[in-house]
Design brief:
268 residues, Immunoglobulin-like, five-stranded mixed sheet, 2 helices, alpha+beta, five-stranded antiparallel sheet
Length: 268
């Protein structure tokens, strides 16, 4: 009789372990990301109200949300993963997701419904790009451990200078550096008012901004440029030339390359 009881206890314990393992396997299966290849066609996504949806991208991104759904849709973007949480049902709206470094745009037609109404996604989604593993111009492979290291301040400054001064045949785009808009109105960039500053062009890379600004002497006296005279918050400032000849001379103009953590308009 004791043997039978002992056997029953072992059987019950074994069944309990088996059920726990089965539940774990089912949970693991539901957490396996669904891979969706980006082919330039908007991706349809149905959210379940109250359930957070994860979407993984090949790189860090920023999400553009229509004003009509901002009150009912929470969006967070962290290190290439976007978290969406609908607080109430809403009809299809288009979300634009932009990669910060490459500028690539992803489109999503997103709607939200109550649980079970339209089979809203609950498992993570992983967005892939067909050419993400093709060798780039420097021979590195994007999306792998051999990807290019972040660009340094010196490389960003050199790139900006080449764009302005190098012969056209030598000017080339560089992966990871994206041109961004900048207002080309004169700004009060240097103390003293003797040098006019006009933004020319700006780029973004690795979360930083590099802006090329034209500097022109307004006076009949030569001017020596000093980074300590610059207004604004800059990580680095590099002058193409440190001395300006009097106004009207061929050498009365130069450029300064400014690297900042925020766009030029809010840094100067």
């Amino acid at each position: 009789m004791l043997r039978i009881r002992h056997f029953k206890q072992i059987l019950i314990t074994s069944l309990g372990v088996a059920i726990l393992l089965a539940n774990a396997l089912v949970h693991a299966e539901t957490e396996t990301p669904e891979r969706i290849e980006w082919k330039k066609a908007p991706i349809r996504l149905v959210l379940t109200v109250g359930e957070e949806q994860w979407i993984e991208f090949p790189a860090a991104v920023k999400v553009g949300v229509p004003a009509t759904v901002q009150p009912v849709l929470r969006t967070q973007s962290v290190n290439g993963t976007v978290y969406l949480l609908a607080h109430a049902p809403f009809d299809a709206n288009r979300l634009m997701v932009r990669e910060l470094d490459s500028g690539r745009i992803y489109l999503f037609d997103v709607k939200a419904s109550e649980g079970g109404e339209e089979g809203g996604a609950s498992h993570p989604i992983q967005i892939t790009v067909a050419d993400a593993r093709r060798p780039d111009k420097d021979g590195a492979v994007a999306g792998t451990g051999t990807a290019r290291a972040p660009l340094s301040y010196i490389q960003l400054t050199r790139f900006a200078a080449q764009q302005l001064y190098a012969p056209a045949r030598l000017v080339k785009d560089r992966p990871g550096i994206v041109r961004v808009p900048v207002t080309r109105d004169p700004v009060n960039l240097l103390h003293g008012g003797t040098v006019e500053a006009t933004p020319l062009v700006a780029w973004r890379a690795n979360g930083f901004y590099v802006t090329a600004v034209k500097l022109t002497n307004r006076t009949k006296q030569p001017q020596t440029l000093d980074p300590r005279d610059l207004r604004g918050i800059w990580l680095t400032a590099t002058f193409q030339h440190h001395r300006l000849l009097p106004k009207g001379d061929d050498a009365d103009t130069t450029a300064v390359y400014l690297i900042s953590a925020r766009p030029f308009e809010v840094s100067h």
